[in-house]
Amino acid sequence: MEEEEEEEEEGLDPGAQAQLQGKVLFLTICAAGIGGTFQYGYNISIINAPTTYIQTFINETWLERTGTSLESSVILLVWSFVVSVFSLGGLTGALIAGPMAIKLGRKTSLLLNNGFVIIAAVLSGFSRMAKSFEMIMLGRFFTGINAGVSMNIQPMYLGESAPKKVRGAVTLTSASFTALGLVLGQVVGIRELLGGEDSWPLLLASNVVPGLIQLVTLPWLPESPRYLLIDRGDKESCICALQKLRGNGDLSSELEEMLAEQAAIKDQRAKSPWELFQNPAVRWQLISIIVLSSAMQLCGNDSMYFYASYVFQEAGIPYDKIQYVIIGTGCCELITAVTCNVIIERAGRRLLILGGYSLMAVWAIVFMVALSQQSRISWIPYLSMACIFAYILSFGIGPAGVTGVLPTEIFDQMSRPAAYMICGSLLWSNLFAVGMAFPFIVEGLGHFCYLPFFTVCVCSALYVGFFLPETKGKTFLEISKEFNKRNFRAQTCEKFWKGPEEIKSTML
Question: Which residues contact 367 (CB under 8 A, 6 or more apart)?
Fold first, then answer.
């Protein structure tokens, strides 16, 4: 079959062949995304709509079991655990994603990862029938594992499969699918669809649909060529994957670059996170992903959704219409994620992250001032609304997507899975910490609750401005030299570079 496909491709003119291969890459992006980072955004948003119904279900279940009702504080505590256990599952998924990517491959890991979401859908879908709110908790934990694995492996898979000219844009589609999942989760969760009292188990179980779509589509698409050659040493499979993704044109230059990187890391095994911490050659690369991955959750973007309903209600929007306006906040994130895809190869990574955090710092100040004057000036609630949309837009245009691109570009093939494990662990740990701490921050600081987030945005912008080099259009060797200026200030880079001298360029 493969030989027949190759013969058909050889009979096509160059324009038609390029179009065909563009479709293969596009399908690879869609198949990886729909069951990948899409699930993260979707599962974050669908839990909001049935909040009241699930809390009532928890109380009724406990009353039926024991004959006594739960106090409101206990119900709130159980509900908080239902929400936050998703983050614990995500942390677990981030920790197992690295070993999965190394041993099973990128594509196979994404396919097997759907097993977690199928288990989660069964548990959540039958929880009311079984009269067990514990099944919802367990389902949310498995859903978190699925999201944790996909958020690490999908950008790795796409970054290694993409041509060098569009590497950043292709990897950044992970953020676009997250935003798409967020919006569709908000839409499906409205009361007229699956957000009603009778249909919330179906809403929680609906995350199985994207997983099934991926199981049907992804097997027909190629594995990461870099993984096949560098990790498995299978040159023939690598060439076959490249031909599917690039066509039967001249693949020699790209293959030579991968062979050069294979030679550079010959006899080396995949690194563990602890080995990265011990390696001085990646010290500043590691600091960079730690700072930026932590800032992703500590910048307060997700907390904006906490205030959305209150601010919209104060602005005079009827309560039953607020759910539709909140969909607009998700649409903002989707629009900016897609826009970032378009401009990343022109503007570069550094400018987008720096500009995003700088604008977020400005809007955090304006938002706090607006909150403090909310009840005194009639038009201030509209300013608060504008701040919510502006904050989300600023986050989406840079930090939301570009942060996930960096580990692919600044770490080599043997270090990349461990780097993504560290990124994922920080992301999920900080998501859990912010979710638990934010109500107390609001209680303690009141209208000035965004001061900690403002500080994070300013510090992140300063770090990017002073320490993060631009990676757009650069080879891995060129990026490494930029970081080595800081990693080895008093020593020459050659002393620590173990790769062969003949390496001229190593494109990712």
Answer: 384, 387, 388, 391, 450
